[in-house]
Write a structure and sequence with these properties.
- It is a single chain.
- By secondary structure, this protein is mainly alpha-helical.
- It has one domain.
- The chain is about 60% helix and about 5% strand.
- The strands form two sheets. It has a three-stranded antiparallel beta sheet with strand order 4-3-5. Strands 1-2 form a two-stranded antiparallel sheet.
- Helix 7 crosses helix 11 and helix 8 runs antiparallel to helix 10.
- It starts with a helix and ends with a helix.
- It is found in: Membrane.
- This is Transmembrane protein 19.
- Keywords: Membrane, Transmembrane, Transmembrane helix.
Amino acid sequence: MTAEEIIGETVRLLPSSVGVGVVEPMRWLNATLLPILVAWWGLRRRSISFSGAVCGLFVGFLLTLGSYAFFVNLLVFFVMSSKATKFKGSYKRKFEKDFKEGGERNWVQVVCNGGVASLMSWLYIIDCGCGEQPINLLYNYRCSWLSLAVLGALSCCNGDTWASELGTVLTSSQPFLITSLRPVPRGTNGGVTVIGLVMSFLGGMVVGVGHYLALLLLVSNSVMLSSPPQWHIIIVGALGGLLGSLIDSLLGATLQFSGMDADGKIVERDGAGVVWINGSHLLDNHAVNLISSLLTAILLPQLALLVM
């Protein structure tokens, strides 16, 4: 398929499995305005930089155009992760060298956290059209797979954020490295705690709750009654958060550098006075987030077959 054909397919939005071929003007309008409002809110609260806000407009547009449920997933992740990042910031500053007040996200972080979900939403638009559909892996596999992939990508990001931002400050127990189980300092890449894993599960769950509520509000009762029970989405979202956090920790423990500087703070770059803790210089935090999001997006629909 040529580039012209791909663009034409996206514009025409002729779905293969949905009987709607025309996008309503209101959806185009909402897909434009809603991301602007969210970006404005994020800029005011210093949760996102200007470059991150501009990039977020494209991410938000693709997700909102595909399905309002996808937009809710994004909104839940952005709001909840921003609050988690700011929680007990003064305490995190004590052991995180690169701690940034307010957790302002730039365009690189937006791409690495929202890029996979945007890609899956774009594929959803091409294959399924624009609109909210209940998950039905038996009779509507492709559209359900792509919907769960979006959920997986964003529940992974939120679950990992909750694990790292809340799990580190809500427990007094020392983290252990996920690969060897040896104790490591707080903030070490690949270090996990029981509370952190619970937080990742809950972080994914709230994204699943958002998706479930969006379907209840936006999909007709007749369609919902003829579909499998949708509350399982909440469980699937929770599993996405836990799975994504585990993948992130495995990558962080092996392929991402962690060291301690002379001030006793965790750093991700080697240098004078830095003592190696674990990992290597193959990946940085952004790459780990991107790969974790992609793997969770691919694996979660298969995992959902066991639940739904």
